[in-house]
Design a protein that fits this description.
Layout (H helix, E strand, L loop, with lengths): L2 H12 L5 E6 L3 E8 L2 E6 L4 E6 L26 E2 L24 E8 L2 E7 L14 E9 L3 E9 L5 E3 L1 E3 L2 E3 L6 E4 L5 E4 L5 E4 L4 E2 L4 E6 L4 E6 L5 E8 L3 E6 L1 H8 L11 E8 L5 E3 L4 E10 L2
Antiparallel strand pairs: 1-2, 2-3, 3-4, 5-11, 6-7, 7-8, 8-9, 9-23, 10-22, 11-21, 12-21, 13-16, 13-18, 14-15, 14-17, 17-20, 18-19, 19-23, 20-21
The chain binds 6-O-phosphono-beta-D-tagatofuranose (TA6).
Length: about 300
């Protein structure tokens, strides 16, 4: 079932008046619109991908003007779900970067409208041996709660008969006024792997600032980070992570952004920064048969 009929069927089964409704997005796929007081969020079934999180004061996420839900390619922007591996597969280099589920249709499993927020859960139904590289018996669930902030959780269950190695990330693109006005607190003193220097290990001194491409996996106590946008309409976003001992910080800058080819405009890199709650680098999760792991990011936007 596709298009309007699909959205109508989902509305019938999972719609919640005033909190959760389904629609066909102009980007070419089915989306859920979450509403809670003066906040809104949009979640695509393609990739279980948060496309937008708008608070009373502004859109908090960056999404490429070139983003599509029907191209079969990963969506540039919003919150890509990287699972069941982050970056390149550790053995099979021919498999897609950032795992298997960013470009697949997820299915709605439940929705909610509580006093604390509007919520949706999506399950990954494909896989289980039908997709190369899929860990036997592994399943994934993404839960999103829109309330005072935005919370997104990525739950892994190893229902298989063998241990599985898991890396993953909630690859969030935050909208910023200008990358030159951005600083990130909370990672001072952490060791990081510099992906621009063959993974060299370095130590972060103080706040992270940007004057060129940055691509780093921070390790250790990454539970609390704060994005400061000191540009016009200065604001900050608190980032609280659970189930994670690593965080990825990325801005492609001018040349890399141009090579990506899907950023929309040449200047787009100035208006985004990725701060990713992750299990990446040394932070590999090993799940025994029957084991479960949840990676959670909680975002609170200040003025
Ligand atoms: O999270 C940072 C990173 O791993 C960068 O190295 C860059 O590749 C970015 O992800 C985007 O990856 P993508 O596959 O979405 O183009």
């Amino acid at each position: 079932m596709v298009g309007e009929a699909h959205a109508a069927e989902l509305d019938r089964r999972f719609g919640k008046a005033g909190a959760v409704r389904f629609a066909v997005s102009p980007l070419g796929g089915t989306v859920a619109h979450l509403t809670w007081r003066d906040a809104e969020a949009t979640v695509a079934l393609f990739g279980a991908h948060v496309l937008s999180w708008r608070t009373a004061v502004r859109e908090q996420l960056w999404l490429s003007p070139a983003a599509r839900l029907d191209s079969g390619k990963p969506v540039r922007g919003g919150i890509p779900v990287c699972w069941p591996w982050f970056g390149a597969h550790e053995i099979f280099t021919g498999l897609p970067s950032h795992g298997l589920v960013r470009t697949r249709q997820w299915q709605v499993t439940e929705t909610g409208a509580e006093s604390h927020g509007a919520s949706i859960a999506l399950g990954m139904v494909e896989g289980a041996g039908r997709i190369g590289g899929w860990p036997e018996g592994a399943t994934a669930t993404v839960r999103i709660v829109l309330g005072e902030g935005l919370t997104i959780s990525l739950e892994t269950h190893n229902a298989g008969s063998a241990p599985m190695r898991l890396t993953s990330a909630l690859h969030t693109y935050f909208a910023v006024s200008d990358i030159a006005e951005v600083r990130i607190d909370g990672l001072g003193g952490c060791t990081y792997l510099d992906k621009l220097d063959d993974g060299a290990r370095r130590q972060q001194q103080g706040a992270i600032r940007f004057a060129g491409e940055v691509d780093r996996i921070y390790l250790g106590d990454t539970a609390h980070m704060r994005l400061h946008d000191d540009g016009p309409g200065a604001r900050h976003v608190e980032i609280a992570s659970e189930g994670s001992r690593s965080a990825v910080v990325w801005n492609p800058w001018l040349e890399k952004a141009a090579r990506l080819g899907d950023m929309g405009t040449a200047e787009a890199y100035r208006h985004m920064v990725c701060i990713e709650t992750a299990n990446a680098g040394d932070d590999v999760v090993t799940l025994a048969p029957g084991g479960r792991h949840t990676l959670t990011a909680r975002y609170t936007a200040g003025r």
